[in-house]
Amino acid sequence: MDGRRLRVIGPGRAGGSLAGALGRAGWEVLAPRGRGDDLAGAASGTDLLVVATPDTSIAAVAAAVAPDERCVVAHLAGSLGPDVLAPHPRRAALHPLATLPDPERGAARLAAGVWWAVAGDPVAGRVVADLGGTAVAVDDEHRAGYHAAACIASNHLVALLGQVERVAGPVGVPLAAYLDLARDTLDNVAALGPAAALTGPAARGDEATLDRHRAALDPAERPAYDALAAAARRLGAGTR
User: Fold this and answer.
1) Under a CB-based contact definition with an 8 Å cutoff, are residues 29 and 22 in contact?
2) How far apart are CA 21 and CA 98, in angstroms?
């Protein structure tokens, strides 16, 4: 297979998504290994072994695999570098900037081409190229910051929309109406950048409107609202 054999340890959402996407791209996908399997020989007979387990167990799982000088061992964690995969001589980190809700939809999303943070062995770049994605090198020093930004862009956005749903519920306006607004806003950010796309009372210094908002909110919702209003003021003022 011209050096394109893949095995995954931990064939869950992320591992299953990668296996499905690379299978579509012509890679030979070998039988995965999961919880309770003997991992000692997992690197044998494959070109790329991906440890797709929770971040806290990556080092222990990698250490249970006998090193093979021909095999690249990689993980999919955003906040960790390749060093966690020692003692394997060829190591890589591959993190897709994509949400992978299940292996089927995740594979389709990865196969469509996404951004990836890569480090370590050049095979990481080959994986991204085979999937039509865009690779960005992120060194160990900056991986935690990179991953924090990814969580803000995805996880925190979901949490924010959860707040929208809670606040809008008593008003009788469905979440769908606000999702259209959110999509338009993301389009504006893509076209103009965050600072130029910012609108609303915090951006124009309308403290009276912000006070009315706070008075209408359940007290439990105010800390998040206040924090984001402060962030909007900061962005509008052009400070960092």
Assistant:
1) yes
2) 13
- In the chain, what are the domains? 5-138 (3.40.50.720), 144-236 (1.10.1040.20)
Closest CA to 100 of 15, 24, 167, 159: 15
pLDDT at 2: 78
Residues 62 and 88: beta-carbon distance below 8 Å: yes
Which stretches of the chain are DSSP H helices?
A: 13-24, 58-63, 103-111, 123-130, 143-151, 157-168, 175-192, 194-197, 201-204, 207-216, 222-236
8 A C-beta contact, residue 9 and residue 39? yes
Report the distance separating Cα 5 and Cα 43, nearest Å. Answer: 11
Tokens 């095995």 found at: 7
Q: Which two tokens stand for residue 107?
A: 């594979």
Block means of pLDDT (10 residues each) for the chain, 240 residues, are 89 96 98 95 97 96 97 97 97 97 96 97 97 97 96 97 97 96 97 96 94 97 97 84
CA 32/CA 55 separation, integer angstroms = 18
Of 99, 92, 101, nearest to 115 (Cα)?
99
**Please, is 47 exposed, middle or buried when counting C-beta atoms within 10 Å of its C-beta (0-12, 13-18, 19+)?**
buried
Secondary structure of 18-40 in HEC code, one letter for each residue: HHHHHHHCCCEECCCECCCCCCC
Q: Residue 220's pLDDT is what?
A: 97
